[in-house]
Amino acid sequence: MNPSSIDALFAPASAAPSYPFAALHGQPQLRTALLLAAVDPLIGGVLIEGPRGTAKSTSARALAELLPREHGGGRFVDLPLGSSEEQLVGSLDLEAALQHGRVAFRPGLLARAHDGVLYIDEVNLLADGLVDLLLDVCASGINRVERDGVSHQHPARLTLVGTMNPEEGELRPQLLDRFGLFVRLGDTLATAERQAIVRARLAFDTDPAAFARRFDAEQRDLARRIARARSALAGIGFGDAAHERVAALCHAAQVEGVRADLVMLRAARAHAALDGRGEIADADIDAVAELVLAHRRKAADDVPPQTPQHRDDTAPAQGDGSRSTNGQASTSTSDDSGQPDPSDQPDDWGALPPQPVPIHTVKNVRPLHAKKP
Ligand SMILES: Nc1ncnc2c1ncn2[C@@H]1O[C@H](COP(=O)(O)OP(=O)(O)OP(=O)(O)O)[C@@H](O)[C@H]1O
After folding, report:
1. Residue 255 has pLDDT above 60, yes or no
2. Which atom in ligand 1 lies closest to the alpha carbon of residue 51?
3. Catalytic residue at 259?
4. pTM (global) more than 0.95
5. Has residue 8 got a pLDDT over 70?
6. Are domains 3-232 and 236-312 of this chain identical in fold?
């Protein structure tokens, strides 16, 4: 695929403003989830389940407008369902590497979406392998592509937003669990709400610039809050009480593993940061709990009878509440292409271990990528 056809996949930067985030009507859970995922992309994105025409794409596009624009950030990238792995992760020109001793990397959609929003409509219809790969990159914040021992990696700190309509197929539970946050949108709108939404949308369509100006102050405020929250994240710790509350909520929901605990702590931290506070409060945890648990909670009839070992698990994890200075994944690369240093990858936090960086190995035969076993 040549670069111009890759460019064709990206939403064109339109001169007309997008519908402002601040003008979205209702949908508080959706707005909160999107803001949290934007503050800390390592939360693992947002999966939105809901009927058509409920502002899923409008809100994701609006979120991108709030992200910092320096260094090419703030893009809204739409991932088409038919995309190949190569289009997604980018490709390496091995011949150039061998002949000229430098890695020629052709960026893919992940590179374009760095510091922006990657939107996947009907993610449940995307090939499982691609969803897996996307979630890997999202959780590590790094895209590493390797071919015959030559590797290239670049930061891929993106806010992943996937939508699905369960009538058109389910997402495998393994993949479901790996989406950080989940929002289920209802389809019943009261008459007054419908009217308010339609009135606002008609006003926007009539004169987008004038409509956007009305929300300018709120938009600026939101953008500032996101930027400040991002830089404050690393300094926000969690104490034993917060940790215990998170563990108890996750235990009560009978979730599998501890991914929910990790995401809930991250999301609560992002919530505190958005509110300009330096510590996680109970209210932060309560505000994010359902977003974290909704898609992970075991149905009552799935829960096996409790054994004594299970009951012992209720004891909260005993952390000392201290934070390490750096939980960054250790990475190495033979890349000499002058791309941003991997140390540019997102922070990691306190007792939370870093995520391993996934490697996408490019085989010679076909321009496809497969993860190393
Ligand atoms: N809560 C809302 N606030 C503002 N606009 C809304 C809201 N709900 C719906 N709309 C408007 O409805 C229209 C459809 O929204 P959008 O295209 O974002 O829906 P969608 O959920 O992505 O649909 P689809 O699943 O069909 O892609 C847009 O014009 C959008 O502005």
Report:
1. yes
2. 25
3. yes
4. no
5. no
6. no
Quote the ipTM score.
0.97
Query: What separation in Å is there between the alpha carbon of 126 and the centre of ligand 1?
Result: 22
Q: What are the b/e assignments for 77-97, b being 16+ CB within 10 Å? A: bbbeeebbbbbbbbbbbbeeb
Please report, for the chain, the start and end positions of each structural domain, with discontinuous segments joined by +: 3-232, 236-312
Cα(367) to centroid(ligand 1), Å: 37
**pLDDT, average across residues 267-280:** 96
What is the CATH topology of the domain spanning 236-312? Answer: Helicase, Ruva Protein; domain 3 (1.10.8)
Residue 208: C-alpha distances to residues 14, 77, 197, 203 (Å): 12, 21, 15, 8
Q: Is 323 in the pocket of ligand 1 (CB under 6 A)?
A: no
The answer, yes or no, to whether residue 122 has pLDDT greater than 80, is yes
Q: Where are the alpha helices (DSSP H) in 215-277?
A: 216-232, 240-252, 259-274
- For ligand 1, whether the C-beta of 131 sits within 6 Å is no
Centre of ligand 1 from the C-alpha of residue 254, in Å: 34
Whether the per-residue pLDDT at 75 is higher than 70: the answer is yes
- Under DSSP, the state recorded for 166 is G
DSSP state, 116?
A: S
Distance 58 CA to ligand 1 centre (A): 6
Indicate whether residue 58 lines ligand 1 (CB < 6 A).
yes
Type of residue at 213: R
- Counting beta carbons within 10 angstroms of the beta carbon of residue 361, is it exposed (0 to 12), middle (13 to 18) or buried (19 or more)? middle
CATH of domain 3-232: 3.40.50.300
Does the CB atom of residue 197 touch ligand 1 within 6 A?
A: yes
Residue located nearest, by CA, to atom 4 of ligand 1: 24
Find out whether 272 and 284 touch, Cβ atoms under 8 Å: yes
Q: Which two tokens stand for residue 63?
A: 């979120």
Give me the residues paired with residue 208 across strands.
Answer: none
pLDDT band at 94 (very low <50, low <70, confident <90, very high): confident
Q: Which of 106, 259, 277, 323 is catalytic?
A: 259
* Chain-centre distance for alpha carbon 235: 21
